Automatic annotation (TrEMBL):
This is Catechol 2,3 dioxygenase. GO terms for molecular function: dioxygenase activity. InterPro entries: Glyas_Bleomycin-R_OHBP_Dase (IPR029068), Glyas_Fos-R_dOase_dom (IPR004360), GlyoxalaseI/FosfomycinResist (IPR050383), VOC_core (IPR037523). Keywords: Dioxygenase, Oxidoreductase. The keyword Oxidoreductase applies. It holds the Pfam family Glyoxalase. It comes from the Bacteria.
Length: 136
């Protein structure tokens, strides 16, 4: 059930400008390695996303979407203000752990990303945390 940091997601109305900033100022590079296959479903999330990396960790720069939670019926909206994401090798055990700790979570399944089962929850300050397991 170990969780390791996978990516940070920044939500913005200015994806192209933010992408250029992180590539030009910080030297990150566009990447297609281990990035999610977005479903681009208007009923879930169809925003632009830029994927950049320092070679070790990813930064996902996503189009802000304040309505995604309402459209999907989920209590946690990961593209309203962004989130920190961890990957686990046993999401079932991780969900059981959250329940035992009394931490409610929103289970998005693979509705937004093909091949990643995603859950989201809040830390005590209201920051959104994603934990996902990659299929296969």
């Amino acid at each position: 059930m170990k969780a390791r940091l996978h990516h940070i997601n920044l939500s913005t109305e200015r994806v192209e400008e933010m992408d250029a900033f992180y590539r030009e100022v910080l030297g990150l590079e566009a990447t297609d390695e281990d990035v999610p296959a977005l479903r681009n479903d208007e009923g879930v999330y169809a925003g632009d996303v830029a994927f950049v990396s320092d070679g070790h960790m990813h930064l996902h720069i996503a189009r802000k979407d304040v309505q995604a939670g309402f459209r999907t019926g989920q209590l946690v909206n990961p593209v309203m203000k962004g989130h920190v994401a961890y990957r686990t090798d046993d999401l079932v055990a991780f969900k059981a752990h959250l329940k035992a700790e009394g931490v409610p979570f929103a289970d998005w399944g693979d509705s937004a990303v093909a091949g990643w089962h995603q859950i989201y929850f809040y830390d005590p300050e209201g920051n959104v945390i994603e934990v996902h397991q990659k299929d296969g």
